[in-house]
Amino acid sequence: MFKKILIANRGEIALRILRAAHELGIQTVVTYSEADEKSLPVLLADESICIGPAPSASSYLNVRNILSAAIVTGAEAIHPGYGFLAENAEFAEMCEEHNLVFIGPRPHNISLIGDKASARRLAREAGVPLTPGSDELSNVDEAKRFANEVGYPVILKASAGGGGRGMRVVHGEESLERAFVAAGEEARSAFGNAELYLERYLEEPRHVEIQVFGDGEGNVVHFFDRDCSIQRRYQKILEEAPSTLDEDLRLRMAEAAVSLARHVNYRGAGTCEFLVDAGGDFYFSEMNTRIQVEHPVTEMVTSFDLVREQFNVAAGLGLSVTQQEISTRGHSIEVRVNAEDPDHDFRPSAGVISDLHWPGGPGVRVDSHVYAGYRIPPNYDSLVAKIIVWAPTRTEAIDRMRRALRETVIEGIRTTIPFHLRVLDNAFYRRGDVYTNFISRRMTE
User: Fold this and answer.
1) Closest C-alpha among 192, 171, 166 to residue 181
2) Segments of 166-281 assigned E as strands
3) Residue 208 φ/ψ, nearest 5 degrees
4) Distance between alpha carbon 283 and the CA centroid of its chain, in Å?
5) Of the residues 13, 95, 106, 397, which has the maximum number of CB atoms within 10 A of its CB?
6) Could you tell me the mean pLDDT of each successive run of 10 residues in the chain, 445 residues long?
7) Residues marked as catalytic
């Protein structure tokens, strides 16, 4: 196992990685920008090192500074968390060139699977069901031809994308050219890559994902499924495990995810995302080559530490479990508490947290990097905390989450907690009738 690692991230995921490392006896070095000097992971780290000013391009995306920080502190490995450089194949390759272990997939895994259009080709080779669509599109005329083949509506997606950027739903040919240009420009700005592909747009699908792990030696296991259908503008806001789909369908999706991961000899943590239509057919959407924001719900129902598993695999110790040893128990729900004002179109609410009280009691977990007196900088993602609950049944988990959110006190900023309470009280949500446009169809923002 490693003796010292560098954590190249910030916020709650940096703290999550730090905690897992400390439990394994690993020393931690946390990188931080000038805006994050007083963040909790920085305060709790064995060592911390500033890598630049607040803008991400000058700090958390500054490869030279991050690599230099790892070298001068004597770190053996770098954990990228999620976001920033977590799915950057070039960064992973540079780590290897500097004799640093990248705690994640191999660079070629990231290149092949991280690119959405390439992932579709690989999924096809592995026999995984795909939504009808295209590979990379070279121009708008090619987009029109594929759209006519698969039938409208279609959705344009950025090949290098994520988080809803570079995505446009198109209902007819008359608006395709405008959407193609807009999506390409947004993708270029967000990811430095304007390549797009398209798929048939499913009107009311569920978004269900499978957590997989590979050791890079051909061994792959899955940790079952998560339902991430509750989204706002393609951004997940509430997740749960397991989904409410029937067991046979869940297992078939899991087997498909394992098949794809094994096909590319995958190493580390990965998530295969599927869309499930009303008829129960499922289609591969993409694979994320990193730990997910929502990984805690899987940990709660399987009782496995997925970040610890990342360390084991990256250190060459292999998978700690076989598929037969992995099962689920009960139900878990996670809500993302963001510093946003849900009463004013979810606009950001940066500022100082004047008072703070987290919930407790049986089956309640809080992943957060903030504390009373902490100033939330305006430079980054608005995530303040993840509140996660576990209970024997889904109904009990919903009731426990409602109780936990009502206990939570965060003063000085606005948060999305009131909105989450409305979701939990929604009759359609409570009976499991969820899909990706649930908020626009079943709730008034």
Assistant:
1) 166
2) 168-170, 196-200, 206-215, 220-232, 235-241, 267-276
3) -125, 135
4) 19
5) 13
6) 98 98 98 97 98 96 98 98 95 98 97 87 96 91 95 93 84 95 92 91 94 97 98 93 97 98 97 94 94 98 98 97 98 98 94 97 98 95 97 98 98 98 97 93 76
7) 290
